[in-house]
């Protein structure tokens, strides 16, 4: 959702326009790349997870999977936190740094980036639960 976020507003005339895109800020680019990397990892690790469910004796691959899951959780949390900082500035601004809040003008843009951020934090929560469940299942055996 973040990768397709943009909005254009006219300024004085129809020929002069302001445009807001996610790739205007490197932080949002990092957010998109981090979420894409974690999503790709999740899709690639799914067959290994299914294999571990079917074969309960595969202890070493479970440990490796938990380690990689934890690394992906760190990447997802970093991307989400970086995005949250910029979304906060977009909504509130910072008067000390003379950064104005842009969400009054770019309303659709801010709604989409906020929704993307909420989805990313849902992913963080899901990863935490999955890691805890995997670790507790490994500890029981």
TrEMBL record:
Domain Casparian strip membrane protein: 1-124
Coiled-coil region list: none
Location in or out of the cell: Cell membrane
Primary site of residence: membrane
Topology of the protein relative to the lipid bilayer: Multi-pass membrane protein
Protein keywords: Cell membrane, Membrane, Transmembrane, Transmembrane helix
Domain of life: Eukaryota
Membrane-crossing residue ranges in chain numbering: 28-51, 63-90, 118-139
GO CC annotation terms, alphabetical: plasma membrane
Family: Belongs to the Casparian strip membrane proteins (CASP) family.
Subunit structure: Homodimer and heterodimers.
Record protein name field: CASP-like protein
Organism expressing this protein natively: Linum tenue
Lineage per the UniProt record: Eukaryota, Viridiplantae, Streptophyta, Embryophyta, Tracheophyta
């Amino acid at each position: 959702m973040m990768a397709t976020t943009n909005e254009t507003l006219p300024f004085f005339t129809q020929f002069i326009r302001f445009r807001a895109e996610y790739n205007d800020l490197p932080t949002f680019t990092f957010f998109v790349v981090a979420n894409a990397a974690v999503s790709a990892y999740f899709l690639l690790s799914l067959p290994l997870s299914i294999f571990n469910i079917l074969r309960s004796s595969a202890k070493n691959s479970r440990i490796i999977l938990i380690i990689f899951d934890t690394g992906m959780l760190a990447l997802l949390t970093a991307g989400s936190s970086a995005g949250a900082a910029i979304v906060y500035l977009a909504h509130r601004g910072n008067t000390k740094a003379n950064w104005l809040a842009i969400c009054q003008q770019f309303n659709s843009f801010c709604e989409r980036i906020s929704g993307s951020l909420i989805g990313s934090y849902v992913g963080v929560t899901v990863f935490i639960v999955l890691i805890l469940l995997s670790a507790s299942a490994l500890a029981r055996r």
